[in-house]
């Protein structure tokens, strides 16, 4: 038996040896391929490091032809290596037999890698010669990768030589082989400014599929950072952090990206967020991170080997920045002011944020006495000698706060601190809250209050106490509709509040604070943008035992607010302001709200409420009621409810459905408005309507009732839309005059001729108007439009009116099967063709599912100087983008499209193509 077993084992060994000898000759080429690909990756990595050295001596925009050609070939080598690596790594996952068969019948890999390796080595020799020549010439200051003209329109502190030097260092990092860069320094020295400038200008140095600027802020969690990333990328929310991480990872895994993390306070788990690892060069893709933090140690913990330390400005740079913000005419308007001004500037300790804000505060001080008083005030603050310390910054912010023009503006300013740190706040949302909080009293009507509120926003932006915000959604930066509060300024503002506030906005809370001391005596409470999903009995009893009686409570964007929290709210009998937008209220209306008899402002938007109770009429003081985007397609409003709310000034009731709602839901509202004795006084009304007759009824109620937003649906047997016609102004003029938003869906409209004067119309959306053939708009009807969206308007062939939209920011066309031309049509002549049609503020252009679209314009070019995102899908006939590039537009437009469509595009020139960063 043992002899038989030994014989079998010997046979197996002999057979294995024969197989090894037979297949060994085929294994070696596969091993050679693996080795060659590895050598190629190492050679290209060294080439990228050499490119960084070349960029340190040569500005690509002004370099000689040989240098530019070398840089271009390095980029091509990187792209080719990425392609080879992708094919090779994919093959490694296959079985050996499959790889062997591919080698026998589809020989590829090693010869190609060998050829590219030789090319990479030749490029390194050329690069060494370029560096040798550069070192042989007399040394000059490092060249600026960014021109001063490229910084026009950016914050003033971005224009200084120190900031430009830091920016150039960051841009060079994009071309080297390092994975992470740290930018660190005290609050207010300009770290965020550098990150924004990198985002604006990185297309000049490197190509990324995605550039993500996200704010980490204090108490940043994995979930919060995921929400920021998802918002920037435009991905869908997932139910769990693990699922969200998988979605982010799947989206970014095969893409090159630059992640800009602002305001990092502690090490963040990027892998847990879903950011692909490892960073650096992986699978032929470039993955880079720039971390901005106050701490050098945090940058090191985030893996940053290279770091940029940002410090306060020297005396001369600080003076130039201060003088630029004050204004030369003020500084030199009196012989004594320059000396005093330099002393005031010195009190800012070289901190850019302070130099800008204090400079703006002094821009209207034209006498030596005013400057002397300001200097005395700053000295009396006993500012610390340590530059950029929190105490110093807070004192300087208080100085600017005290110099605001009125108590109203000051209170509006500190109210901005109720929002989370680094949060982008909608101007409309901010002004709406100011109105609801009673900060804009003594004005004639809601429209006047909103106009004044927006002027206050402009005042605070001009004073640099508020900054222009970013539209994080899809990373469409910047945005004229958003503002943000610098974290340093926000901290100072919370110290300036006139009473006691409890502010834990965006702090990642899972339950409300339990400490009685926090609630006791708090006049305003902000727990918005958290994840409060539990309110233990101890928390509820703590609130009750503290006898908490806040006047305002902000809970919006807690998407699973527990019932126990609502039960606690009913005891807040002094409450006048309550925001419960997007808090997960399901089905039944929370009856606890009906106990709040002093309530003046109530926001229940973005919930799932089936009906309004008659008990809501108990809120006899209610002035502002918002129920927008209610997720249910039906909502019942009992007759007589609106008439009981005698002080109501704003009423907005919408469902989220665009097609179907309860047929009779609107009738009780209009009936009540007509029946109110003495005439209704609803100054801002938003509502769905089913007939032109309802529009006429509203028009007869004007000016007491002003329709701000109308959604018209299922208009049958209506050939033309009378609401926009000048002929119908006698009957409909009351609605035309006040209208801001018009939405028309699922109707038989064939013509939309807008010749009426509609001075405030800002948003129009048309959907499922399958018979629409003609659209003609006058300048009077389009001069203020910011957003236009059209979907499933199949009979429409072209648009001629969009070129008359100076304020247009977003144009979205989808499913219009008959559309052949975006601009033009009958009437375009030779003279018109020579003229460049400019869209001065357009940031988003979406062209989706337009199978017959052939050109953006019949003849001539268009200019989109502010375009940030272009979506093109389902447009097979569109072969050319008639774009006139703007200065500095290179690499700033993200274009989302099909790879084959992108490769087949015909370009008028390389300068046009260079504007776009394709996401394929």
TrEMBL record:
Residues 175-327 form the NB-ARC domain. It holds the Pfam family NB-ARC. GO terms for biological process: defense response to bacterium; innate immune response-activating signaling pathway; plant-type hypersensitive response. It comes from the Eukaryota. One of its GO terms (molecular function) is ADP binding. The keyword Nucleotide-binding applies. This is NB-ARC domain-containing protein. It comes from Digitaria exilis.
């Amino acid at each position: 038996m043992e002899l038989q077993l030994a014989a079998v084992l010997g046979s197996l060994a002999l057979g294995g040896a024969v197989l090894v000898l037979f297949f060994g000759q085929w294994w070696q080429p596969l091993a050679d391929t693996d080795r060659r690909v590895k050598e190629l990756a190492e050679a290209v990595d060294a080439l990228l490091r050499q490119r960084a050295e070349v960029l340190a001596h040569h500005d690509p925009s002004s370099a000689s032809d040989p240098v530019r050609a070398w840089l271009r070939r390095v980029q091509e080598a990187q792209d080719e290596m990425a392609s080879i690596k992708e094919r090779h790594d994919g093959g490694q996952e296959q079985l050996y037999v499959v790889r062997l068969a591919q080698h026998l019948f589809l020989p590829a890999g090693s010869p190609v890698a060998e050829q590219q390796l030789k090319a990479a080595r030749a490029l390194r020799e050329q690069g060494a010669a370029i560096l040798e020549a550069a070192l042989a010439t007399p040394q000059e200051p490092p060249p600026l990768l960014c021109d001063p003209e490229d910084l026009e329109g950016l914050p003033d502190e971005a224009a200084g030589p120190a900031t430009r030097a830091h920016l150039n260092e960051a841009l060079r990092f994009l071309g080297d082989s390092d994975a992470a860069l740290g930018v660190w320094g005290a609050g207010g020295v300009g770290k965020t400014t550098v990150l924004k400038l990198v985002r604006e200008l990185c297309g000049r140095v490197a190509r990324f599929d995605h550039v993500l600027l996200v704010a980490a802020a204090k108490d940043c969690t994995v979930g919060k950072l995921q929400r920021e990333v998802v918002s920037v990328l435009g991905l869908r929310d997932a139910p769990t952090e693990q699922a969200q991480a998988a979605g982010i990872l799947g989206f970014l895994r095969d893409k090159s990206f630059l992640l800009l993390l602002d305001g990092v306070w502690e090490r963040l788990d990027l892998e847990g967020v879903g950011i692909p690892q490892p960073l650096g060069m992986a699978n032929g893709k470039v993955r880079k991170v720039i971390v901005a933090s106050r701490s050098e140690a945090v940058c090191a913990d985030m893996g940053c080997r290279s770091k940029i330390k940002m410090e306060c400005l020297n005396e001369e740079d600080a003076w130039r920045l201060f003088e630029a913000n004050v204004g030369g005419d003020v500084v030199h308007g009196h012989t004594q002011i320059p000396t005093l001004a330099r002393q005031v500037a010195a009190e800012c300790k070289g901190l850019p944020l302070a130099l800008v804000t204090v400079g703006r505060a002094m821009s209207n001080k034209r006498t030596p006495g005013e400057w002397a008083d300001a200097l005395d005030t700053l000295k009396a603050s006993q500012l610390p000698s340590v530059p950029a310390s929190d105490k110093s910054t807070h004192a300087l912010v208080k100085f600017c706060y005290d110099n605001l023009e009125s108590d109203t503006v000051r209170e509006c300013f500190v109210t901005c601190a109720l929002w989370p740190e680094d949060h982008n706040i909608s101007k409309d949302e901010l002004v709406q809250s100011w109105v609801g909080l009673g900060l804009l009293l003594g004005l004639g009507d809601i429209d006047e209050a909103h106009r004044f509120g927006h002027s206050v926003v402009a005042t605070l932006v001009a004073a640099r106490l508020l900054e222009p915000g970013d539209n994080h959604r899809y990373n469409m930066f910047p945005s004229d509709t958003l503002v943000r509060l610098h974290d340093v300024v926000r901290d100072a503002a919370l110290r300036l509040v006139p009473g006691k506030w409890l502010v834990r906005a965006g702090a990642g809370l899972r339950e409300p604070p339990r400490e009685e001391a926090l609630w006791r005596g708090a006049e305003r409470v902000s727990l918005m943008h958290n994840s409060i999903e539990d309110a233990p009995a101890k928390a509820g009893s703590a609130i009750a035992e503290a006898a908490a009686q806040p006047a305002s409570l902000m809970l919006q964007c807690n998407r699973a607010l527990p019932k126990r929290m609502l039960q606690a709210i009913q005891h807040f009998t002094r409450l006048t302001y309550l925001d419960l937008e997007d808090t997960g209220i399901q089905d039944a209306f929370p009856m606890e709200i009906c106990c709040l008899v002093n309530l003046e402002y109530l926001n229940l938007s973005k919930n799932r409420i089936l009906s309004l109770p008659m008990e809501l009429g108990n809120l006899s003081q209610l002035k502002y009621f918002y129920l927008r985007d209610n997720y249910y397609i039906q909502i019942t409003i009992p007759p007589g409810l609106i008439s009981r709310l005698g002080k109501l000034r704003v009423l907005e009731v919408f469902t989220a459905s665009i097609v179907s709602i309860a047929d009779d839901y609107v009738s009780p509202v209009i009936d009540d408005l007509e029946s109110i004795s003495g005439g209704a006084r609803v100054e801002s009304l938003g509502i769905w309507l089913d007939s032109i007759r309802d529009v006429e009824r509203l028009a007869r109620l004007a000016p007491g009732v002003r329709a701000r937003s109308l959604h018209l649906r299922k208009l049958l047997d209506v050939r033309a839309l009378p609401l926009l016609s000048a002929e119908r102004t006698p009957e409909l003029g009351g609605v035309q005059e006040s209208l801001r938003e018009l939405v028309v869906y699922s109707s038989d409209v064939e013509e939309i001729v807008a010749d009426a004067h509609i001075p405030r119309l800002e948003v129009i959306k048309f959907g499922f108007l399958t018979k629409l053939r003609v659209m003609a708009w006058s300048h009077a009807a389009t001069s203020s439009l910011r957003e236009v969206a059209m979907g499933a308007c199949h009979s429409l062939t072209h648009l001629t009116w969009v070129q008359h939209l100076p304020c247009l920011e977003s144009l979205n066309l989808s499913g219009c099967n008959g559309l052949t031309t975006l601009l033009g049509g009958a009437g375009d002549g030779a003279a018109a063709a020579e003229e460049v049609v400019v869209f001065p503020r357009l940031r988003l252009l979406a062209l989706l599912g337009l199978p017959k679209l052939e050109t953006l314009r019949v003849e001539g070019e268009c200019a989109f100087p502010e375009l940030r995102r272009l979506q093109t899908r389902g447009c097979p006939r569109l072969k050319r983008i008639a774009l006139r590039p703007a200065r500095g537009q290179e690499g700033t437009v993200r274009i989302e499209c099909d790879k084959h469509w992108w490769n087949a595009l015909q370009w008028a020139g390389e300068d046009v193509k260079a504007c776009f960063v394709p996401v394929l």
